[in-house]
Amino acid sequence: MSFTVQPCAKHLGAEISGVDLSRAIDTETFAKIDQTYAKYGVIFFRNQDFSPDQQISFSGRFGEVGSFPLAQYSLDGHPEILLVSNIQKDNVNIGLADAGQTWHTDMSWSALPPRGTALYAKEIPINNDDDVFGDTLFASASAAYEALPDALKNRIEGLKAIHSYHAKHAYRAKVSVSDREEMSQDQKDAHPNVVHPVVRTHPLTGRKCLYVVTGECVGIEGMPENEALALLDELATHTVKPEFQYRHKWQVGDFLMWDNCSVQHLAIRDYELPLRRLMHRTQFAGSRPY
Ligand code: SIN
């Protein structure tokens, strides 16, 4: 099967055309898609029409697909598919309504963050003037690293940042449209802080990537807190500068995947009901950051 690749921003993002994900993808074609994914960090396929099982099976070719702990937000009969949505049924959210509303890379607060994440667009908020809302921004953490001055690259070489799920939870609740309650002590105990390199190496391309997240990194090992927080803020702010970004304007039928090593992302919450947004989200395993 042959396909075309259309890059869509200077540093990341590419549209793949000519692939129908509801049909079998042979090994050679898959290997080329996988290489394109590693190279561009974000890839997407327009006008797809495939079943939940097909989404799970395709996602699973990139890494083992996980189930989501928030069972009430998964697609009926498919614990591997998380509903990301503002839609409500009987005044109750059918899915996770506040996903991704601050810049982040998925689950960096865990010891083994997922390699990548995929969204399949089922409903997109569009008003009567055909304005589309709910874009997602992506930023290349590898281009951001490469643009650093050498002195700063040397300074951060070998440093390890502390990532905190509790800090992320509190930060999200503070700055996004969210009705999350404060975490209980049991929840906090279940998610201890983890440590990852400030500069990650992409396991397939070998490119170095900045791996620090605003609101989620709470320190750097062996560095005084004030100095660490200032450095983390400088690096995280640099990572998501406009020059490293791609903005995805969604269409129903888009299947889009991002790489959690080389890319950070942000969901733009600029819509409210009755405008509806519904994504089927899958996530697949990666390797320990190094
Ligand atoms: C996410 O961060 O998982 C969701 C992103 C989006 O809904 O655009």
The succession of helices and strands, N to C, reads EEHEHEEEEEEHHEHHEEEEHEEEE
The average pLDDT score comes to 94
Fraction of residues in helix: 10-25%
Q: List the strand order in the largest sheet.
A: 1-2-3-16-8-18-5-4
Q: How many β-strand stretches?
A: 18
Distance between the termini: 35 Å
- What are the distinct ligands in this entry? succinic acid
What does the largest sheet look like?
Answer: 8 strands, mixed
Rg, nearest Å: 19 Å
Number of continuous helical runs: 7
Proportion in β-strands: 25-35%
- Oligomerization status of the protein chains: single chain
Salient structural properties:
single chain; 290 residues; alpha+beta; 8-stranded mixed sheet; 3-stranded antiparallel sheet; 7 helices; 23% helix; globular; binds succinic acid
Q: If you had to describe this structure to a student in words, what would you say it looks like?
A:
With 290 residues, the protein is α+β, with helices and mostly antiparallel strands. It has helices spanning 27-40, 52-59, 141-146, 150-156, 165-175, 185-190, 225-239, and strands at 4-7, 14-17, 42-45, 74-75, 78-85, 88-89, 92-93, 116-123, 136-140, 160-163, 194-197, 199-201, 208-210, 217-220, 245-248, 255-259, 263-267, 278-284. An 8-stranded mixed sheet has the order 1-2-3-16-8-18-5-4, with helices on one face. It is globular. The two termini are 35 Å apart. The model has no long low-confidence stretch (mean pLDDT 94). The site of succinic acid (SIN) has 9 residues, from β17 and β18.
